[in-house]
Amino acid sequence: xxxxxxxxxxxxxxxxxxxxxxxxxxxxxxxxxxxxxxxxxxxxxxxxxxxxxxxxxxxxxxxxxxxxxxxxxxxxxxxxxxxxxxxxxxxxxxxxxxxxxxxxxxxxxxxxxxxxxxxxxxxxxxx
Length: 127
Fold this sequence. Notes:
Layout: E1 2-4, H1 9-24, H2 33-54, E2 56-60, E3 64-69, E4 72-77, E5 81-87, E6 100-105, E7 109-113, H3 120-126
Antiparallel strand pairs: 1-2, 2-3, 3-4, 5-6, 6-7
Helix pairs in contact: 1-2
């Protein structure tokens, strides 16, 4: 079962504003090689961020909880999960929201984005 995650719309607004600035620097009057290289690097970073923004979800399988965040995919066996709770911890982790879902296993702890409001019931029913 696929469960979509919450995404902060402020991030998308900042991304669009920043990409607009990049496109404005690409005017033909500023064809300096350094500006073109910088612009290309920024566009690649934005493309990767947008890809990650739209490819973030949870997947509930028979024996694993899988989270996908862009190119990253991690399977957590249900048998290794000790507890699941909410966290306000802002450490670096694959999450688009400030409030996060914390999954604690025997090996480590995972901080993930919360599921969408309409998909929360799917997560609770199967858990």
